[in-house]
Amino acid sequence: MFKGRWRTAGRALVRVIVVWAVSTLTMLVLAGILPDFQLQGADDSLTRTALTAAWGAGAFGLLSALVWPFLVRALLLVPALVLGLLVFFLNGSLLLVALKSTPDGGGAANPENAIVVAAVMSAVASATSTALAVRDDNAYRRRLSRLAERRRRRSGEDSARRGYTASPGTLFLQLDGVGHQVLLDAVADGHMPTVAGWLGERPTHRLTPWRTDWSSQTGASQLGILHGSNHDVPAFRWYEKESGRIMVSNRPASAAELQRRAIEHTRDAGLLTLDGASRGNLFSGGADQLALVLSMAARRGRATRSRAGYFAYFTDPANAVRTAVSFVAEVCREIGQSTRARIRGDRPRVGRGGLYPFIRAFATVVERDVVVAAVIGDMLAGRAAVYADLVAYDEVAHHSGPHSRDATRVLERLDRSIALLAKVADHAPRSYRLVLLSDHGQSPGETFLGGYGLTLRDLVRAGCGLPVPRRAVRTKSGAEARDAARDAVRTALHRPVDESEEGDEKRSARGSDPIVLASGNLGLISFPDVPERMSREQIDERHPALLRTLANHPGIGFLLVRSEAGGSVVLGPAGAEIPVAKLDDTGLLATMGPGAADAVRRTDTFPHVADIMVNSMYDPATGRVHAFEEQIGSHGGLGGEQSNAFLLSPLTLPPPVPGGGELVGAEQVHTVLKRWLYDGLGPQVPLGLTPATGAVPQEETEPSPEGA
C-alpha cells in the first residue's frame, strides 16, 4: 500500500515538474517574440534568464492555483459575460505579480503583453497537464474519484447518496433543435463519430423518432418532457387576454409561471425530483441542483442567481482563458462565414450582423462549456439524474440553415462534448446511462418577408383595412440563445430584464388593433378588446376580408378559428373549410405529416389559444416552410422536419414504446423517461422532500470548483 502511495506521489511530482518546465519554456519563447516582455537585464547570462523564467512560471502557477478561486468567488456577483472578459485582465495581473517576485525583479512586461503571456501560459499548462493525466489512466481515475469525494464531503451528501451508487444514474442530454433526419445524416456522413459508434455494427443504443406537438419549440417540448404537461402552451409566445400579458417561453417570469402551471396541473414536481440536477434548461424539472435554469432566474438572492452556475467553470483560469479564446475565435468564424455567404449570394439568407456573432459565440462556446462542466461535476458527484440542454446547433441553424455547413460544424463539436461526457462516465462513482434526445427539429425555407415582401402583421393589417407601413419591419427572432445572451448583457448593465419582449405589441393592446405574434412558421392573431376567444362570425362582422385574405395567401397553409356553428374549423384556400371534429390527416393537412389533425385538435382545447392560429405553407417536395420571424431554419408549427425529434437510448433500457408503436408528444416522452429513471433506481424516497408537497426544494446551488 505504501509502495503504491509513493508511486502515486512520484507520478504527481513528475507531472508538476513537467508542467513547470513546459511553462518555463513557453515563457522564454514568448520573451523572445514579444518586444516589451523581458526576463533579463543587459548583463544577465542565459542561465540567469532561464532561472528568472522558471521562477516566474512557478510563481504564476502557484498564484493561479491559490489566488484565482478566491478572485472568482469575490467576483461571482459580476454577470457571466463580464466575468469572461475580466478573465484576461485578472490573469495578466497575476502574471505581473509573479514577475515582480522574481529575484532582483528581473522580469518585466507591459500590461498588454502580460495579458497575452498569461493567456498562452494558462492554455499551454492546461493542455500539458491534461495530456499527462490522460496518458496515465490510473492517475486520471484516482483524480476524478478524489474530486467527487471532496464534493460529496463538502455538500454533506455522502451519507445520503452512498446507498444509491449501486444503481445506475442517468444523463439526459438534449441537443436542442437537432431533428431526427439531421442526426441520421450527420452519422452517415461521419460528422458525429461518437454517436455513429453507438449505432454501428454492434450497436449499444437504440434510435427512436418522436413527433412533437403542434407547438414544435423548446418551451412546449421541454415543459412536457421535464414536468409531464405542456397543456395550454399554444406557441413560443402568445397573448393572454385576461391579464393583457404576452407570454414568452424563454423569459424568466413566463418560464416560472409555466412551470408553476405544469406542477399544478400534474401535482408532480417533475422528472428530476429524485436527486436530480437541471443544467442550462428553461425549467427545473423539480431538481434540487440547478444552474442556468431560466425559470429560477427571476428569483433574487446570491444563491439563486442563474449566473452562479458559471462559478464552477470560471474558477479554473485555464478553462476560463480557453473559453474566452474560443469565444473570440467563434466570433471571427461567424463573421467569416456570413461574409462568404453574402459574397456567394446564398439564398435564403437573413441578417447576421450586429450582436449576432457574439450571441452565436455565447451559445456555441460559453453555454456549451459551462453546461458540460456542470454535468461533469454532477456525474463525479454521483447524482441519480441529470438533464442538460445544449443550444448550440439550434442557434446556428436558425441563421445558417439546418443542413448548412456551419450547422454541421457545430454538430461535430457537440459530438466531442458527448465523447467527453461518455469518458467521464467511466470514472464516476456510479455507472451512467447516457440518453440523447432533441426537443424538435428545424425546417428550412425563405422567411415570409423574404418570399412575399411583407410580414404577417402587414398582411393582417391589410386584411383588417388598417394602415400598413410602406417599409416592412422585420419580426424579431426568438431563438433561445439570443434572448439568454441579451438578458445577460442587460444584467451586466444593471438594467431590468424586459419580460414582455414585445413592447410595441403591449402598447397596441390598449386599443382594438390585432396583436400579431410569431413563433417560427406559426402565427397567432388576437384581438385584445374582446375578452373571450373571438368566433369566426365576430371576426367576419368586424373585418369581413381578414380570414379570406389570410386563407388565400400562397404563403399560408391553413387557419384555425372558432365557429359559433358546430365548433372550431380549419380554413384553407379557395373557401376550403373542415370542422375540427371531422379533421383528419388528409385534405388541408395532407402535407403536414402524420398526427397533424390530432395536434391541431388538442391545441384547439387550450384556454389561451389565439383568436386566429396561422400555420405557414409547407412544400413536401423541398421541405421548406415560411417562418414569420427572421429565420431560415425555423420551428414552432407544423410542416417538415421541425416536428420530427429523436430519442437515443441505451439498449439496456426497455424500448420507449412496446411493440414498436409511435412516440407522440412531449408528455409521452416524459412518461418514458420517468419509467426508465425510476425502474433503474427502484422504489426509493427522493432526497429533501418537503412534507407539504413531496417536492424537492427548488434552490439554485453554486457548484463546487472541483465539479468543473
Automatic annotation (TrEMBL):
Signal peptide: none annotated. The keyword Endoplasmic reticulum does not apply. Residues 699-708 have a biased composition (Acidic residues). Residues 473-514, 688-708 are annotated as: Disordered. Pfam families: Phage_holin_4_2 (PF04020), Phosphodiest (PF01663). Residues 477-489 have a biased composition (Basic and acidic residues). It comes from the Bacteria. The keyword Membrane applies. Keywords: Membrane, Transmembrane, Transmembrane helix. The chain crosses the membrane at residues 12-34, 46-68, 75-99, 114-134. InterPro entries: Alkaline_phosphatase_core_sf, Phage_holin_4_2, Phosphodiest/P_Trfase. This is Phage holin family protein. The lineage of its organism: Bacteria, Bacillati, Actinomycetota, Actinomycetes, Kitasatosporales.
